[in-house]
Amino acid sequence: MGSRPGDHDEIGDGPLSRGAVVILWVLVVCGLVVLTGGVPLLLVPFLSDDPSNLWLAALLALPMGPALGAGVFAWRRFIAERDLSPARHFWRGYRLNALDVLRWWAPTVAALAVIGFSLAYLDSAGVPSGYGIVLVVVAAGLLMWAVLALSLSSHLSLRTRDLARLSTYYLAAKPLVTLGVLSLLVLCVGIVLFTSDWVLVVVSGLLAFAVVTTTEPVVRDATARFTAPRPDDAAPV
After folding, report:
1. What is the pTM of this model?
2. Is the separation of the CB atoms in 79 and 36 below 8 Å?
3. Backbone phi, psi, residue 133, to 5°
4. Range 50-58 average pLDDT
5. Among 237, 204, 183, which residue's Cα sits nearest to residue 3?
6. Most buried of 17, 104, 108, 227 (most Cβ within 10 A)?
7. Angle at CA of residue 211, ends 207 and 214, nearest 5°
């Protein structure tokens, strides 16, 4: 991994200094992800259990996509060249990626809301019980696709349709990465079941780091074969 001249002077070579930098990055990135994407979700626990509120919950979840995209961008800079400016990298990632992420994040959240609404009325619809299993599998596949799309769109300049194709392609082309992404989703479900959904929001910045490390083979392959990194992402900062 490369580093800029002066990084060692800025951070220090000792384990205490480097550990402090890691703590700084975790606190800043996690805090900014919660601030930019998690705050609207504070309203979700106050919504009634009526399935019609899924649409409102989906609307409140929209800011989380760009927030996670900025977190992924920042963590990639952390891995490449660590410094004492995590907030600067986060806001640069937010500026570069927010609109690109929203172009696919909004329809993805809408599709998940439709699936959730369908599951809520499964019994009254009178359809076979196996239909519910199919919907759950589709939702899981859509979430795994979204993780790959998040990683790719946070690093590469892609048209939305090309991003969709590449994310679908890599679900099959990189089975180990897909298995890793599935493991992350299982972890998220476990956090919600055994703690609360707000704990998941609080640790979402760390999950963004896990996305970076898990999907790195996909980003590396896509960069080499299909496109190039964003100029701003590759430039010294």
Report:
1. 0.87
2. no
3. -65, -40
4. 86
5. 237
6. 104
7. 130
Q: Count CB atoms within 10 A of the CB of residue 71.
A: 31
Quote the pLDDT of residue 71.
97
Cα separation of 63 and 61, whole Å?
6
pLDDT of res. 125: 60
- Spatial neighbors of 111 by CB under 8 A, at least 6 apart, are 142
Contact 119, 132 (CB under 8 A): yes
Q: How many CB atoms lie within 10 A of CB 94?
A: 20
**pLDDT range class, residue 28, cuts 50, 70, 90:** very high
Residue 132 to residue 119: CA distance in whole angstroms: 6
Contact between 84 and 4 under an 8 Å Cβ cutoff? The reply is no
Q: What torsion, rounded to 10 degrees, do the Cα atoms 106, 53, 61, 32 define?
A: 160
Enter the tokens of residue 102.
């929203």
Task: Report residue 83 as tokens.
Answer: 């410094």
